[in-house]
């Protein structure tokens, strides 16, 4: 950076290359993005929340609250379920000097601009179509992870009801108000994960009771 702080690091880990973007701080700089040559890439908001998450099959764009804004799959990806959604070009600024452009799996660029000079890093991943058929299926969530997700949604719904009570204390109908759309969506996703995960019927019933309580 113009301040002299390190902005972008490229390191080798065994057979993989890793590109790391840091914030403009002299000490304890937070990581703003990580791009790996195996296709696993993550960009973070300034507050540390995940902004964009990508793997060899596709990616998703999240808001700062953790709700998914959009998702996509790369061409020729082998997905376990769900429709194939094409990517719409994405341009984001990690900070005033570093931007990320995503046009395709092999067309992901990190751009650094400062003092009238620019550097570009191609951090995309090239994958042979013949290799895609050998990709392992996406890992399924374990029992503990599903329970954590269920309790997270339950807590968020309780906070939403608490806000409704505080904002409208005299409204006798506040407890009948529906939760926000993103919480309903997350609830449905967790219930869908329960049907596709290898868990006991007892645990599946417990999770259903938690998110619907």
From TrEMBL:
Pfam families in the record: FAM194
Coiled-coil residue spans: none
Start and end residues of each FAM194 C-terminal domain: 1-176
PANTHER family linked: GLUTAMATE RICH 6 (PTHR23093:SF18), SIMILAR TO CHROMOSOME 3 OPEN READING FRAME 20 (PTHR23093)
Protein name: ERIP6 protein
């Amino acid at each position: 950076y113009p301040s002299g702080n390190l902005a972008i690091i490229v390191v080798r880990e065994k057979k993989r290359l890793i590109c790391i973007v840091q914030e403009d701080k002299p000490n304890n700089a937070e990581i703003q993005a990580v791009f790996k040559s195996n296709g696993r890439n993550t960009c973070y908001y300034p507050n540390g929340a995940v902004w964009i998450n990508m793997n060899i099959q596709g990616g998703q764009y999240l808001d700062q609250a953790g709700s998914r804004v959009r998702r996509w799959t790369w061409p020729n990806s082998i997905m376990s379920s769900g429709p194939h959604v094409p990517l719409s070009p994405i341009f984001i600024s990690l900070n005033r000097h570093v931007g990320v452009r995503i046009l395709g799996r092999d067309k992901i660029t990190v751009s650094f601009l400062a003092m009238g000079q620019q550097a570009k890093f191609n951090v995309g991943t090239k994958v042979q179509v013949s290799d895609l058929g050998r990709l392992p299926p996406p890992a399924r969530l374990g029992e503990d992870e599903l329970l954590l997700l269920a309790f997270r949604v339950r807590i968020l719904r309780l906070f939403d009801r608490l806000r409704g009570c505080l904002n409208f204390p005299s409204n006798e109908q506040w407890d009948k108000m529906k939760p926000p759309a993103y919480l309903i969506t997350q609830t449905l996703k967790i219930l869908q994960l329960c049907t596709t995960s290898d868990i006991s019927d007892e645990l599946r019933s417990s999770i259903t009771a938690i998110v619907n309580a």
